[in-house]
Write a structure and sequence with these properties.
The complex is a heterotrimer of chains A (about 280), B (about 575) and C (about 170).
Chain A: H1 29-43, E1 50-54, E2 69-72, H2 78-88, E3 93-99, H3 100-106, H4 108-117, E4 122-127, H5 162-169, E5 173-178, H6 182-194, E6 199-204, H7 217-220, E7 222-223, H8 232-241, E8 246-252
Helix pairs in contact in A: 1-6, 3-4, 4-5, 5-8
Chain B: E1 2-7, H1 13-26, E2 30-37, E3 46-53, E4 66-69, E5 89-92, H2 101-104, E6 109-112, H3 115-120, H4 127-138, H5 143-153, H6 158-178, E7 194-198, H7 199-210, E8 214-217, H8 224-236, E9 240-243, H9 247-259, E10 264-268, H10 270-286, E11 290-296, H11 313-318, E12 327-329, H12 334-351, E13 354-360, H13 361-365, E14 367-371, E15 416-418, H14 432-448, E16 456-459, E17 466-471, H15 474-487, E18 493-497, E19 499-501, H16 505-511, E20 517-522, H17 528-536, E21 542-547, H18 556-568
Parallel strand pairs in B: 1-4, 4-5, 5-6, 8-9, 8-10, 10-11, 11-13, 12-13, 17-18, 17-20, 20-21
Antiparallel strand pairs in B: 1-3, 2-3, 2-14, 7-14, 12-19, 16-18
Helix pairs in contact in B: 1-4, 1-5, 4-6, 5-6, 7-8, 7-12, 9-10, 15-18
Chain C: H1 7-34, H2 38-62, H3 96-120, H4 124-150
Helix pairs in contact in C: 1-2, 1-4, 2-3, 3-4
Classes of the chains: A alpha/beta (about 280), B alpha/beta (about 575), C mainly alpha (about 170).
Chain lengths: ~280, ~575, ~170
């Protein structure tokens, strides 16, 4: 049952900026934004100690909608930018926001290496199986038979399985969330932030403009029937065989995160001259 | 005095060359050692090209005085790199075959020395130490300096050291019988306060002195040694180096770290720079200071990875999409790799802009004996926003164009850094007013900055009516060529540009007063500097170009010839 | 569905329901404003105000000065509170009638929800309070029905947009 307690700031609202999203009405990303702000309120970290880093695409517009520091970089490169930031400034909470095109296609290589590197980041990917900002082209998670102007009749190419790839590449926390479950998603993001190392949260977030059939998702989603495992092989087997609508934390690993800059100064740069001196 | 030590993999010519340079430095000489090798990872043909002098020198001469080959396996491939003359001496081991015709054709005296047999006669010794003794003695370096260099480098058992010192002595003794006349007279006083380092190391050290504490990079020839030097060095000064998955990642990692307030750098070469350009544009638009050291190599594409060329200039000054003002600097010597990289860090930080440093393979991978570069303290650092600064706007249109940057963690001044065009507050905007304002701001901050006298090295007769303009590693060869031209009665001043972008027309104009002809010298096929200068400067009178691509370095002789021809024209 | 045991627990759930509904409506209002659908934006803004007032009433009734913070699973089934309209059910060309349809559906869900709570509640205090809430939601349903009677139903082909979606980034 619920614990009733007296409220303490900050609230989710304190993590929202005054800027209004440009997302289409009905877009799942509105709820993801709401989940992000709720998760940050749960962690209660000051907004100025949080950086939200993104690339390009609908989902990547999220940083400016928060009251945190934001970095809206180039297409596909949010993870490297966030990696540099977190390694150099470990005291910051760094959230990375991406989409299925930005994160899995143009930024696919960085995804693999961010998982293996295991820097203490929380990576949320708003997956709607389509490129929205360029007007509805198939992405790596689009079904092979989805018809579009760029790929009439479908790409004929099998779709990508981000969760399995994350596991195989060494992500330390793997979850699947749904934008239509903003409170559950907020809990998962908060867990991801708290969990050391690279936390990956794939958020199915419908595109009502190019994929209106995704409105059905809210009737298909269901909570994952089992608790998360720390065995990647087991998690992979579950994820490979589930129906794709299982939401919840699926894997919680124990790998040691990538070391951040310690800032420990052993000598001044000038001391290094000795090795050049004759 | 120029010496080439050649041999196939495992013969140890690089070690011998390194020790020769070290010994020369101990004997009070200046010098440079350039490495050249075949494409094999191990065991390929290799040559150490060493030039020694009484004055600082970082170019290779026209001809080699001595070519000493431990064997001749594929050494003919270096014929262009090791030009000989009738005055040269060629030494080979008769048991390893005879010298290829490409070397003997010049009429060099050919002396035979059974190097391998000499080493075998001293159990536990190596042939390359015999070669070191021969080359060192012929260069006029005292035995004690050679022995000291060998001892200082020794990391193995003492008995082997004794054997190799004996081999060294055997080489020295054999040199006496050859009796070449190219030996340098002893240096007046063994120099103090001198350094021995490569341009890559110098650039790495300059970066640290400039305040760089985060480096992300992807390995690439010929920039890797810069990174390998920096990795442990950064750890000592409280920073870190991260090996990225590719250059797309490395450039974005340093942008991320610098956005976080930590001065950051990456080093790469042409192919990597090409991959990075989209994000360098992001650093321009989002006003994030970064430094990219491009150790240039032969291009385009994979090109000639281990050979030098100054062919990324056009790309560096103009290769970003959109109107993207950036800083482009080029060190003019191995020693200057330190100061210029340090300056680049300072400028990037002060102007919140990307700085590209154009080093090259020749400077980067060559080791030189230099005078310790003077300490330079560049005043001023990144302008940051105070906590809770009232009405904070990250991209405020200030008179200087530089606006305070809020560092994440600072309360009350949060903003989103954006590659999208933005308003002063940093909110995406496609309004013409915002676009124009931000374009102006980003241009203005680079144009208004006072770069001082460091923008170029200006040498020679101030009254000369002719000027040679060059940049980068070619500077040293041009300087030498102009000295020779002056001996032949032809005078011109030398302007070696250190700051290539933004152009400094107000600073160049007074130097060109009274000048009626200009020669632009550079090492590339497309006359890139010539074309760039013509597009951004008003050059007086007749403007000529002397340019040639790599992989061979520009030599003083060919430049001097070009200077004579130019003055006569 | 787990049942609230105390009045405070019930009212906490009711309060969260109202707050979340208000937040969703104001999110819709913002989105409609951004997409230049001002009549619908205005309507959603009104809904947000109404739900916000309900929340305030609950606070006043319970004598709460701050919103109780609760964690853990909510008592309702499904991902969101019964009174919250799913985020994906709006359309940028929707008309006020559609917005009222969504509001009606939300109020009806809320009414059924409190009805079930009242039926199943073990404690008398909870039962009577739930019944009271159910009654209020029923009144809202009626109000919205009356409102809909005054608003023209959508024209045929309301969702037709002669212009294709735009490229942005």
């Amino acid at each position: 049952m619920n614990d009733v307690a007296v409220a303490a700031p900050p609230t989710a609202a304190s993590y929202k900026s005054g800027y209004k999203p440009i997302w289409c009405p009905g877009c799942g990303d509105y709820s993801v934004l709401s989940s992000v702000t709720k998760a940050l309120a749960m962690i209660a970290v000051p907004p100025s100690m949080v950086a939200v880093v993104s690339g390009i695409g609908c989902s990547s517009r999220i940083p400016a909608y928060t009251s945190c520091y934001g970095f809206h970089g180039v297409h596909g490169r949010s993870l490297p930018a966030a990696t540099g930031l977190k390694v150099a400034r470990p005291e910051l909470t760094v959230l990375v926001a991406s989409g299925d095109g930005d994160g899995y296609s143009i930024g696919g290589n960085h995804f693999l290496h961010a998982c293996r590197r295991n820097v203490d980041l929380t990576y949320i990917v708003m997956d709607n199986h389509v490129y929205g900002m360029t007007k509805g082209q198939p992405s790596p998670t689009t079904e092979p038979d989805w018809d579009s102007k760029l790929s009439p009749g479908g790409t004929g190419v099998r779709s990508f399985h981000p969760l399995v790839i994350a596991l195989a590449s060494g992500a330390n926390f793997v979850a699947r969330a749904f934008s239509g479950d903003p409170n559950g998603t907020a809990e998962m993001i908060a867990q991801g932030i708290r969990h050391p190392g690279f936390s990956f949260i794939e958020i199915l977030s419908p595109c009502v403009t190019f994929r209106p059939e995704q409105r059905e998702w809210k009737r298909q989603m269901h909570a994952a029937p089992v608790a998360p495992t720390d065995d990647p092989a087991r998690a992979a087997r579950r994820i490979m065989t589930d129906d794709g609508f299982n939401i919840g934390v699926l894997y919680v690993g124990k790998r040691t995160p990538y070391p951040a800059v310690t800032g420990k100064v052993k000598c001044a740069p000038e001391a290094l001259e000795a090795e050049f001196a004759l | 005095m120029s010496i080439a030590l050649a041999g196939s993999g495992g013969s140890g010519v690089m070690t011998a060359g390194t020790l020769l340079l070290d010994a020369a430095a101990r004997a009070g000489l200046y010098g440079i050692m350039v490495r050249t090798s075949g494409p094999q990872i191990r065991g390929g043909e290799a040559a150490a090209l060493v030039r020694l002098a009484h004055v600082p020198t970082t170019s290779l001469d026209d001809r080699f005085d001595l070519l000493l080959a431990i064997d001749w396996q594929n050494i003919h491939r270096f014929a262009d790199e090791i030009p000989l003359s009738a005055a040269s001496v060629l030494i080979g081991d008769p048991d390893e075959g005879t010298a290829p015709e490409v070397f003997t054709a010049a009429g060099a005296r050919y002396a035979m020395l059974p190097l391998k047999k000499m080493a075998k006669a001293i159990p536990g010794s190596w042939t390359n130490m015999v070669a070191l003794g021969v080359a060192g003695a012929l260069a006029g370096i005292e035995r004690e300096a050679l022995a000291a260099a060998l001892r200082a480098s020794w990391k193995r058992a003492d008995d082997k050291l004794t054997a190799n010192l004996a081999a060294l002595d055997a080489g020295i003794a054999a040199a006496a019988d050859i009796g070449a006349s190219c030996a340098l007279p002893p240096a007046p006083t063994p120099g103090t306060g001198r350094w021995l380092l490569s341009g890559n190391e110098a650039a790495g050290y300059g970066a640290l002195r400039g305040g760089v504490r985060f480096v992300a990079a992807y390995p690439i020839t010929p920039a890797t040694e810069l990174l390998e030097w920096m990795a442990p060095a950064l750890a000592k000064v409280g920073g870190t180096l991260l090996q990225a998955e590719d250059e797309l990642a490395s450039i974005n990692m340093i942008i991320g770290a610098s956005y976080g307030g930590v001065p950051s750098l990456t080093a790469t070469s042409g192919p990597g720079l090409a991959l990075m350009t989209e994000s360098i544009g992001l650093a321009v638009a989002a006003e994030v200071p970064i430094v990219v050291v491009d150790v240039m190599r032969g291009g385009p594409s994979t090109g000639i990875p281990a050979k030098s060329e100054q062919s990324d200039l056009s790309f560096a000054v103009s290769g970003l999409h959109g109107d993207a003002p950036r800083l482009v600097l080029a060190p003019t010597s191995i020693a200057d790799c330190l100061t210029t990289t340090q300056w680049a860090v300072h400028l990037a930080e002060a102007l919140q802009a990307p700085a590209i440093v154009l080093s090259d393979q020749f400077m980067g991978q060559s080791r030189a004996v230099i005078d310790r570069p003077p300490d330079v303290d560049f005043a001023g650092a990144r302008l940051t926003a105070a906590a809770n600064a009232p009405d904070y706007k990250r991209y405020r249109d200030t008179p200087s164009g530089v606006s305070p940057m809020a560092i994440p963690g600072t309360p009350g001044v949060v903003y989103t850094a954006d590659g999208l065009e933005h308003s002063e507050a940093g909110i995406p905007s496609s309004q013409s007013r915002d676009h124009r304002l931000q374009l102006d701001k980003r241009e203005r901050k680079l144009l208004l900055h006072d770069y001082g006298d460091r923008w170029a090295d200006v040498e020679g007769d101030a009254a000369a009516d002719a000027v040679v303009i060059t940049f980068g590693s070619t500077t040293s060869a041009v300087r030498e060529a102009l000295a020779r031209a002056a001996c032949g009665g032809v005078h011109a001043k030398l302007i070696a540009l250190r700051l290539l972008a933004p152009a400094q027309p107000e600073r160049l104009a007074p130097l060109l007063a009274g000048v009626d002809r200009v020669l632009v010298v550079e090492q590339n096929h497309g006359a890139q500097l010539y074309r760039y200068l013509r597009s951004v400067y008003d050059l007086p009178g007749k403007v000529s170009s002397f340019h040639r691509p790599g992989p061979l370095p520009l030599r003083p002789g060919e430049i001097a010839e070009a200077v004579f021809a130019w003055r006569k024209a | 569905m787990s049942l609230p045991r105390t009045l405070a627990e019930l009212m906490t759930e009711a309060l969260i329901m109202e707050i979340e509904a208000a937040q969703r409506y104001s999110e819709f209002a913002d989105a409609m404003e951004t997409h230049n659908n001002l009549p619908v934006a205005e309507l959603f803004r009104k809904m947000a105000l109404i739900e916000g007032k309900h929340a305030e009433q609950i606070m006043a009734q319970m004598g709460w000065t701050t919103t109780p913070v609760t964690t853990g699973k909510r008592i309702w089934e499904g991902f969101e509170a019964p009174e919250t309209t799913p985020g994906d059910e709006v359309h940028y060309l929707m008309q006020p009638y559609h917005a009222l349809e969504l509001a009606l559906a939300a109020e009806e869900r809320a009414e059924r929800f409190f009805g079930r709570l009242a039926d199943e509640a073990k404690s008398e205090a909870v039962k009577s309070a739930a019944r009271e809430m159910q009654q209020e939601e029923r009144e809202h349903v009626e109000l919205i029905r009356e409102w809909m009677a005054r608003v023209p139903p959508p024209e045929a082909g309301w969702e037709n947009d002669p212009d294709p979606p735009r490229y942005t980034d």
